[in-house]
Amino acid sequence: MAELICPRCEGELLERTGKHGSFYGCSNYPKCRYTKCHYIAKERKVVGIESYKRK
């Protein structure tokens, strides 16, 4: 994985977990309070109409 760099202070962005989910936060916290959202792609199961038909 490529190292993520803070655009404000050029510190390393670390993966952190808060009450609203995962995010990237600057390693220089509390001097730098930069954060970036961390989106996790969830697999969606597509159910076709055929599965709803009664046999």
Number of strands: 3
Q: Which geometry do the CA atoms define? A: globular
Beta-strand residue percentage = 25-35%
Q: What is the mean pLDDT?
A: 77
How are the elements arranged and paired?
Layout: E1 13-18, E2 21-26, E3 35-37
Antiparallel strand pairs: 1-2, 2-3
Description:
With 55 residues, the protein is mainly beta. The chain is 0% helix and 27% strand. The protein has no helices and 3 strands. It has a 3-stranded antiparallel sheet with strand order 1-2-3, with no helix packed on it. The termini are far apart. 5% of the residues are buried.
Summarize the structure.
The chain has strands at residues 13-18, 21-26, 35-37. The protein is mostly beta strands and 55 residues long. The protein has a three-stranded antiparallel sheet, with no helix packed on it.
List keywords for this structure.
mainly beta, 3 strands, globular, 55 residues, 3-stranded antiparallel sheet
